[in-house]
Structure formats: structure tokens, C-alpha cells
Design a protein that fits this description.
This protein has helices at about 15, 30-45, 60-70, 100-105, 105-115, 150-170, 185-195, 200, and strands at about 5-10, 50-55, 80, 175-180, 210-215, 225-230. It is of the alpha/beta class. It has a 6-stranded mixed sheet. α3 links the parallel β2 (about 50-55) and β3. α6 crosses α7. The longest helix has 21 residues, at about 150-170.
């Protein structure tokens, strides 16, 4: 019976500053480092022994994964990085303070950008420094696949093929896996695993640095149990499908 651990990166510098981050490559805070180390300790206490790891190409997730694996004494396992596990691209909101953005555009409009399933924020021009076309880590990604802005729907559209082709086959083979990613890319995985509706998924919040450990049946998709390991920082989970 395979297990899957989903870990949102520890607190980032822009989480602390209440700024929209998305694909901008910000670092962890000291608290974020502590959260990542704690994630490894919590997983170790369960006896979890992943044999393969997946992570985005953003350093807040990469560092979280490495600190978690250090706590598990599993830094040697294969690790695959993919842009498809990146956070949702916040387009023209990237770098803006969330409170100031509400003051400028109105709370209702910002709520639509943040919490609707299929309405993206305003796009970035390709000339902007935060557009992924100007970042060398995406040189091998087809230009037309690089987003200027994303909704959760378009985030799901890029996460789902990676889940289906790269992660799910290893779960079906009975392997225990760990994925370190971001609030919205993990929200997409939760939507797929728990079969959450479009209307309900935006109410699901994945806390930073708190591992969600999922027990799966041999088919790699049927959930037998799921829990956050730090109960004091847990968020409500959707009902099992």
C-alpha cells in the first residue's frame, strides 16, 4: 500500500511580507527553514521511507525538500525537478502586497483573482522581469507553454499531465513518494486525488511545512486515509471520495 507525502514549502520571505509570489524565486525565512526541518521529523516519526522525490524548480520548495529528506536520512533518493509543479503564476500581481492590492482594486476583485477557479489575474507583458520567458531555468520549456498569468484551472492543466505520466505510475508500482511544491500546485493534486469540485477546491488551504500523508490503495488513486502530521497547524481536508 503506497504512501504519498505532500509538503508545501516552509514560510517564504514573501509569505512573511504578505506579497503575491507565484513563480518569483524567493527564499525561505528562518521560520520556513524550521518548518521544513520539522516536516522531516514528523515524517520520520511515522516510519515513512520515500524512495523517490518530486519538486518544483523554485528554491523555496527545493530547500524544503532537502531539509525534509535530511530529517528522514533519505537525501540519496532520486529527485526530479519540474516547472509543472511550480506555484500558480500570479501575473501582474506578482510582488504586490495583498492588502495594498485590495485597497487599489477592491476586495471583491482581488477575491475573484485569488479564489475563483478559472479567472486569472492580469497577465504580465513578456518584457517584464517576472515573465518566465526571461528566466533561463525555462529555456527548455516551449515558449507557448510559459504562462503570463494563471488561474487554478490552468495550473491544474499543467500539473495533471505530470501527475499522470510521472508520479502516478510509481505509486501504482507500490513506491512511497514525496512531493514538495506550493499552495496551488498542491491544491491541484488534492483536487485530483480527493475528486474535489471546481467550486469547492479554492476553499482548501494547504499549510506551509506541514506534511499531508496520504495512504493509498494499490491502484495509486484510491485514498484509504489522509492526515496532516502537525495537528496543531492542520487545515480541514475534503471528504474521502
Amino acid at each position: 500500500m503506497p504512501q504519498l507525502a505532500l509538503i508545501r514549502h516552509g514560510q517564504s520571505e514573501w509569505n512573511l511580507q504578505n506579497r503575491f509570489t507565484g513563480w518569483v524565486d524567493v527564499d525561505l525565512t528562518e521560520n520556513g527553514v524550521a518548518e521544513a526541518r520539522r516536516a522531516g521529523e514528523l515524517l520520520a516519526e511515522t516510519g515513512f521511507k520515500p524512495v523517490r522525490a518530486y519538486v518544483s524548480v523554485l528554491k523555496r520548495a527545493i530547500k524544503t525538500l532537502h531539509l525534509t529528506l535530511e530529517g528522514l536520512d533519505r537525501m540519496w533518493i532520486p529527485e526530479e525537478k519540474s516547472w509543472r509543479l511550480n506555484e500558480r503564476h500570479y501575473g501582474g500581481l506578482a510582488g504586490l502586497n495583498k492588502d495594498e492590492t485590495r485597497d487599489k482594486h477592491g476586495a471583491e476583485q482581488v477575491k475573484i483573482w485569488r479564489r475563483s477557479f478559472d479567472t486569472p489575474p492580469p497577465p504580465l507583458p513578456e518584457s517584464h522581469e517576472y515573465h518566465p520567458a526571461n528566466d533561463r531555468r525555462y529555456d527548455d520549456v516551449p515558449r507557448e507553454a510559459l504562462p503570463a498569468s494563471e488561474s487554478l484551472k490552468t495550473t491544474l492543466d499543467r500539473v495533471e499531465p505530470y501527475w499522470t505520466s510521472e508520479i502516478l505510475p510509481h505509486l501504482k508500482a507500490g513506491e512511497d513518494l514525496v512531493v514538495a511544491a506550493h499552495g496551488n500546485s498542491l491544491r491541484a493534486l488534492v483536487k485530483l486525488l480527493f475528486q474535489v469540485s471546481d467550486g469547492d477546491i479554492m476553499e482548501i488551504e494547504v499549510p506551509t511545512g506541514n506534511p499531508l500523508l496520504i495512504d493509498l490503495a494499490d491502484d495509486g488513486t484510491t485514498i484509504r486515509g489522509a492526515r496532516y502530521l502537525d495537528e496543531d497547524r492542520a487545515k480541514p481536508l475534503p471528504p474521502l471520495p
